[in-house]
Amino acid sequence: MQTELNYDTVFDAQHHFRQLLDSMSRPGKINKLDSGEIFPPEGLNQASALTGFALLNADVTCFAAGVNGDDTVLYFLVNTSSPRAEIEDADYIFLPENYYSTDLSAARIGTPKYPEDSATIIAEASAVSTEPIEGSLRLTLKGPGVNGEAEAYVAGIDERLLVFLKEQNSEYPLGLDLIITDRQGQVLCIPRTNKFSFTQS
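User: That's the sequence. What structure does it adopt?
Assistant: Structure tokens below.
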């Protein structure tokens, strides 16, 4: 597993972190993470890789689901020094497209005393957009950072994941933050504070 030589661990990571923070604080806003040419392993898109580079370090842990999960974890270990953890202990959980498993119920949602001690999920989709996509899920987002309502469309994500997220986030401040990435390098965030709903578009 190679170290990415075309990625600036200071400039690029700070830039992408600001973009992620912008999307997280303004649910429904889609940002595109651009960088030099990188070569993530199969099953990890570029936006998820760049999200990992911005968020991971030796002090936080990660878990990756799916058939290529071990390669993803090794890739992040080599490039960010973030060690692997089981899903119940991981700070960041990476999911491939169209993924859902009841194992996700083990993910940390924090405690009443330490609600910040929770995991963030990075889930891949085939496409995210503010415009309708055929066969996608239409998200309606409400809450902090949204002026009234915002709409976004996501294709290539299992709707059971969104049902699960709503259930886990029903007792704020406990819950999970979600970052959705797509094949075009874009990110869309749903923080635990957001009261979203979805329908088939």
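Residues 11-25 form the longest helix (15 residues).
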